[in-house]
Amino acid sequence: MAEKLVYFFGGGKAEGTGKMKELLGGKGANLAEMANLDIPVPAGFTITTAVCTYYYEKGRTFPSTLEKDVQTALEGMESVMGAKFGDSPNPLLVSVRSGSRSSMPGMMETVLNVGLCSSTIPGLIAQTGNSRFVFDSYRRLIMMYSDVVMEKAAGIEVAEGKEIRQQLDRMLGEMKKARGRASDADLTADDLQELVAAFKAKVKEVLGKDFPDDPREQLWGGIGAVFASWNGKRALSYRRIEGIPDEWGTAVTVQAMVFGNKGDTSATGVAFTRNPATGENKFYGEWLPNAQGEDVVAGIRTPNPLNEDTQNEQNRHLPSLQKAMPEAYIQLDGIRTALGRHYKDMMDIEFTVQDGRLWMLQCRVGKRTGTAALNMAMDMLAEGLIPKEEAVLRVSPAQLDELLHPIVDPNAEKNARPIARGLPAGPGGACGQIVFTAGDAVEWTKRGKKVILVREETNPEDVEGMRAAAGILTARGGMTSHAALVARGWGKCCIVGAGGLEVDLHRKTVTAEGNVLREGDAITLNGTRGHVYSGSLPMMDATQNPRFVEFMALADSIRRLRVRTNADTPEDAAKARAFGAEGIGLFRTEHMFYGKGSEAPLFLLRKMIVSKDEPERRAALLELYPFVKKDIKDTLSVMDGLPVTIRLLDPPLHEFVPSGQEEREKLAKALGITVEQLALRADDLHESNPMMGHRGVRLGVTFPEITEMQVRAVFESAAELTALGKKVFPEIMVPVVGMASELVNQRVLVEKVHGEVCAKHGVRRIEHLFGTMIEVPRAALTADLIAGAAEFFSFGTNDLTQMTFGFSRDDTGTFVPEYLEKKLLPRDPFQVLDQEGVGQLVRMAVERGRSARPKLKVGICGEHGGEPSSVEFCHRVGMDYVSCSPYRVPIARLAAAQAVLREKGIRD
Ligand code: PEP
Ligand code: MG
Questions:
Q1: What was the pLDDT predicted at 294?
Q2: Is 482 a catalytic residue?
Q3: Residue 106 pLDDT > 70, yes or no?
Q4: How many other CB atoms are found less than 10 A from the CB of residue 512?
Q5: DSSP 8-state symbol, 312
Q6: How many C-beta atoms surround the C-beta of residue 597 within 10 A?
Q7: Which ligand has its closest atom nearest to the C-alpha of 862?
Q8: Which phi and psi (to 5°) does residue 6 adopt?
Q9: Could you tell me which residues are beta bridge partners of residue 637?
Q10: Of the four listed, 59, 472, 561, 641, which is most buried by Cβ atoms within 10 Å?
Q11: Index of the ligand 1 atom closest to the CA of residue 588
């Protein structure tokens, strides 16, 4: 390899910079940056990620020049640190750490104290006069190295509990017990010397090899193991969850060891330059005297508070660094200020105090909660540290989401094991008692209980129960299945398609991984991750932050895309307006037949559906009309001044045919027919594939009177509201169109009714638009022809995804998780728009549509309209608006603003 493979840092200078994360990994780049800022970092060097790529491409070997480059860098370290690697009287010890471009905390391996061996131990003891410290460091090296290098990197798989690390840990525990030592720190030098001898024998016995006694062998073993850990199990699954590409690779940083475990004037700690939970501008951290870094993060000892600001109930009695080591603290606080000013962000830092001298071991941009992200962005803007564009990029859409829903306490969740996993359909957390029917959900809620509705799947009759429940869990269904759509619309926590669940309605039990849960048992859902837990985990209150509004105003000042909402009731419309929706992009009229107050219209709809001929159907429609009109009129009224896209009926007919005997009897009676005759009519409605059957525009073509009734309701409502001084902008939208001819057919009906209503009200025109959904691939392909009859397009990417992939949107729970696991799909295409495939159709349809009608208004109303990466795509293809469920409106507003900034090349 011709390029530079190794970058040195130390002694107040560095070959790399903080900008070189791709090559040096986050850790290496930031160490270089700190060295350049003259912040005290122990000298070291970073082997680039390009070497990692080489290592995997060339059968786990290294470039031929690497050894020489490492040697040169090592010599540089030796001269800065005044000690020599492998030298007997004055040995230098090093740490070997991983570092990828974006931080993957705890996912890869680290080896500390490399270089300790039989020839360097006596020298270090003589030099420090502290044999306890030396043997403690050596036992740590053996524990880490045997685990990371000799077992994991060697690909040795062992049964749980039999790992070498566990075995050595047990020996350490036994030794403490036998000697009556309360903690690791109480073990004496003699104890530890004995322990390391036993450790080495154990390593030989278990792994069949001697523990390496040559510092160079240790060093290269460590380097190889860190590269190998890039493809370790933990790292792989973390990358999959976080969407980090496999090709990035990790860098390896080798750094001179400094010791926090040398005695009472030594210490180690972790800190954040601002509070990562609340965002408060206060130095926040934890430390331990006489310890190495891993002790703080591993949670073996309760760490001490860094300062007064960090004190809490658990650590109040422990001394702060501020009090115990005031000089080191003052220096650290100065570094905190310098880092804050330099990075203009909240940094997560690791430090060590060795014999009273402070060293910085790491700094990186700190992870934070949604609340903290928001507060910090607004604070830093007010402090003049960052411009508004930067502030808008500082809060991720996912963090915003977190602010809008209660969540499961992450600390409690860390210690809990999920009993099932499903698709994260409705974000946030919920816990409650299990019920198995919608009726029970309503009933129990009325009695003041919090319930989780557990169903095999849901149907329209469950809606009331879904509304009442705190959360919803189904064994079947995909992200756009009914339960998911409805739950998301309400901002309700929901998990669907949890394939491992067995729901037994008769026994009222649900079984997951052998756990049998009964009605009334407590269960917790994390709808953001799709995890199900037995029992109730504590929740965190995502209180509305007053700065939220301020922050959103900043985002609004940047975005170009408009953001509308998918709302089906006047209440949802009002809520979405409060969240900043600028109109309704999808009003699904059939939703008036679900839920509260739906009995009467549902009955009439059923009557209409099973009518035998047109006159009977017209009679039923006439009865239905007042309900439809009221729904439309109320919604138009709530959205006064804003556009409302009203979609013509697109009902899954079979779902509306009653299945209960009592309801069938009532319906038969109303139609003057027998239950048997009704059953025959219902059979006629049966379709083999209802998703591609008699729905959408096809219904309007075959039963024009249905379209006429709805359009009349729209125009009458608009005319009446206009007369009252309201400003209404209805947009009539036809679903499931595949051909321009279908749209023309419906347009004729719309114009006819428009003329009639105008005449009745004595007006020339009722303001409106006529347009179509683009949700059938053929519509996208012939968009230029379709635009001839449409004033707007709205992409129904739920159906478009279904029909482009040929994946049934209601059945993806059965195979999509495995596709994701096997990496056949990068993301669930029903959640994140498939830009590569479905996206081509969208882009093409926008272009073709606008070529025929330049002023064509274009939006999206599929579920993707509230998903950040899809919103960015919609921005790029030049859409006018996105439309999403009310709770996702703020997320879409932010994503739309961030899309503008990224397009301008402003990166976070
Ligand atoms: C769609 O298909 O994307 C859409 C919005 O319509 P529905 O989900 O009601 O089929
Ligand atoms: Mg659709």
A1: 67
A2: yes
A3: no
A4: 21
A5: -
A6: 11
A7: 1
A8: -130, 130
A9: none
A10: 472
A11: 9
Beta bridge partners of 254: 45, 96
Query: In sequence order, what are the residues at sequence separation of 6 or more whose Cβ sits closer than 8 angstroms to the Cβ of residue 601?
Result: 592, 593, 624, 627, 628
| Residue of 363, 493, 494, 861 marked catalytic | 861
Q: Ligand 1 centre from 718 Cα, in Å?
A: 25
pLDDT exceeds 60 at position 379? yes
pLDDT score for 313: 56
Q: What is the pLDDT of residues 228-249, one digit of tens each?
A: 988 887 777 677 666 778 889 9
Residue 592 has pLDDT above 50, yes or no: yes
Q: What are phi and psi of 59, to 5 degrees?
A: 60, 45
How far apart are alpha carbons 515 and 499 in whole angstroms?
A: 15
Q: Which atom of ligand 1 is nearest to the CA of 795?
A: 3
**DSSP class of 425:** E
Ligand 1 pocket: which of 591, 653, 773 to mutate (most atoms within 8 A of CB)? 773
Rounded mean pLDDT, 835-860:
98
Which residue, chain included where needed, has tokens 């419309």? Answer: 573
H/E element holding 347?
strand 347-354
Quick check: helix, strand or coil at residue 688?
Answer: coil
The residue to which tokens 């206009």 are assigned: 722
From CA 451, how far away is CA 440, in angstroms rounded? 9
| Residue that has been written with the tokens 């130390």 in this structure | 10
pLDDT-based confidence at residue 543 (cuts at 50, 70, 90): very low
Burial of 180 (0-12, 13-18, 19+ CB in 10 A): exposed
- Ligand 1: residue whose CA is nearest its atom 10: 799
Helices 599-609 and 661-671 sit at what angle, rounded to 10 degrees?
A: 70
Centre of ligand 1 from the C-alpha of residue 512, in Å: 32
- SS3 of 19-68: CCHHHHHHHHHHHHHHHHCCCCCCCEEEECHHHHHHHHHCCCCCCCCHHH
Average pLDDT over residues 821-842: 94
CB of 798 shorter than 6 A to ligand 1: yes
Residue type, 671: L
Q: What is the pTM of this model?
A: 0.78
Please confirm, yes or no, whether 591 is among the known catalytic residues. no
Q: Strands, DSSP E only, in 407-467?
A: 407-408, 420-421, 423-426, 429-435, 451-455
